[in-house]
Inverse folding.
């Protein structure tokens, strides 16, 4: 009995280490959209070219992830997290000295490969260290990434914008710190692998009663919800600064601070979403998170500067609570394929965001930067499809 309790214990030291590494990883990734105004002016890029940069980064961050996760389910690689950071380190160094469009594309592609290696196995370790507290574990892990995404634009406003593209090299320190810090996490994971093999997974009788067709349908619904969220998020993370500059004539630093406020709200909403999902049920968090952001997203393009920032923060708080719930819900549908499910949905996160960024960049060149926010505001309305997800959890009081 004590041995079983030990297996289900939540190891907060591992969760916090993984979360902090996630913070550093996503902080380094978030500087890519933060430098768009700089490289657009410096090299004369169009919005479509900016979108392609994001597409290359997001696709390299996404295409490999399901395959890495599937391989990790069968052959866990404890030290792959540190290897991923080596790729990120190389990409950051290349980006700081890139002086052509093709070299910039290569740089962001290498950074994307590092992300593909990191996320599936890190999510798997977080699930393992969380014991019975899956929602809490995933929220702790995910909030690190969201916190890094929020800090990245702020650091870019403080370091890169005043000192230029070459100052990106300073972010290589974060890659080194993360890579070294993940070594003991890898050693811990290696010692736990035999326990993982001995652990017997008790199937959820509700899920066992579902047909494969019903489970596949639920996964497709989760993919549609992920599409609606991350297509909308692409418009915010890649073009919100341009929207503020064009519509309200604010300077670059003010626009970056507003992006920081939005991403900070995303980080806070992730924690709230995980806690609420554990208490009241993940299906309802998924439903309310995406559909609940719709009225605010629809109103955002038509209000003044102050209300634009307020609505952006509200949208960030609401819509960000969905991802942890989606990921845990998906792993509960396929409990023996945690790495593959994590890779699939982290991959969709990056891939759909990249496609969305490229699409909205093309659309902005054809129409206007304001028009893409009018169009993207319709996306959260797709949240209604969450009503068709099966109830796989016991009713929460």
């Amino acid at each position: 009995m004590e041995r079983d309790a030990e297996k289900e214990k939540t190891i907060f030291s591992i969760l916090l280490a993984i979360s902090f590494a996630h913070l550093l990883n996503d902080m380094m990734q978030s500087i890519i959209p933060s430098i768009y105004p700089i490289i657009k002016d410096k090299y004369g890029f169009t919005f479509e070219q900016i979108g392609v940069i994001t597409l290359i980064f997001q696709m390299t961050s996404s295409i490999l992830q399901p395959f890495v996760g599937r391989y990790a389910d069968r052959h866990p690689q404890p030290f792959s997290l540190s290897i991923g950071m080596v790729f990120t380190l190389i990409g950051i160094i290349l980006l700081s000295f890139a002086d052509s469009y093709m070299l910039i594309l290569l740089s962001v592609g290498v950074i994307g490969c590092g992300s593909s290696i990191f996320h599936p196995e890190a999510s798997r370790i977080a699930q393992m260290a969380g014991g019975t507290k899956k929602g809490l574990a995933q929220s702790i892990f995910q909030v690190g990434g969201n916190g890094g995404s929020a800090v990245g634009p702020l650091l870019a406003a403080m370091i890169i914008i005043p000192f230029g593209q070459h100052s990106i090299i300073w972010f290589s320190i974060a890659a080194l710190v993360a890579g070294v810090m993940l070594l003991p996490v890898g050693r811990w994971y290696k010692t736990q692998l035999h326990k993982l093999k001995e652990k017997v997974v008790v199937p959820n009788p509700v899920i066992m009663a579902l047909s494969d067709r019903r489970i596949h349908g639920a996964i497709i619904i989760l993919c549609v919800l992920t599409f609606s969220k991350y297509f909308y998020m692409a418009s915010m993370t890649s073009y919100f600064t341009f929207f503020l500059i064009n519509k309200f004539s604010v300077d670059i630093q003010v626009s970056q601070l507003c992006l920081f406020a939005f991403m900070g709200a995303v980080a806070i909403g992730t924690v709230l979403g995980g806690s609420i999902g554990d208490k009241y049920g993940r299906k309802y968090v998924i439903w309310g998170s995406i559909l609940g952001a719709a009225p605010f997203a629809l109103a955002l393009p038509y209000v003044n500067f102050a209300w634009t920032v307020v609505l952006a923060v509200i949208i960030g708080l609401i819509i960000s609570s969905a991802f942890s719930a989606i990921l845990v819900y998906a792993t509960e549908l396929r409990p023996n394929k945690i790495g593959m499910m994590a890779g699939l949905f982290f991959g969709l996160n990056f891939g759909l965001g990249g496609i969305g960024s490229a699409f909205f960049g093309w659309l902005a060149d054809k129409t206007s930067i304001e028009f893409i926010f009018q169009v993207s505001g319709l996306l959260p309305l797709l949240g209604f499809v969450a009503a068709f997800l099966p109830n796989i959890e016991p009713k929460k009081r």
The two ends are 28 Å apart (CA to CA).
